[in-house]
Amino acid sequence: PTLEQTPEEDRPLAQEAYRYMDLQPGQAIAGLPVDVCFIGSCTNGRLSDLRAAAAVAAGRQVASGIKAFVVPGSEQVAAAAEAEGLDAVFRQAGFEWREPGCSMCLA
Q: Alpha-carbon distance 103 to 97, whole Å?
């Protein structure tokens, strides 16, 4: 989104995020190189999120030189995902299956 599309109170954070990522507001990101892939977190690591991501990852492989992590949002989500074999799907694709909870957001 452009800064004009961002709520006024969120613009300082959006500007900082753009600066951190060396992007300009509204800049297309298709084709930009990726060096880290992070799926999950305490707020976006629901079982439904992991199922959807595993469906995309199944049968694929993380590209060479890319660090890829999956962090379930809670112990309960981790247990359910592991019971369904989602952790194995991610591992086979080349992701690291991490302990649930706070992770990359604090790195």
A: 12
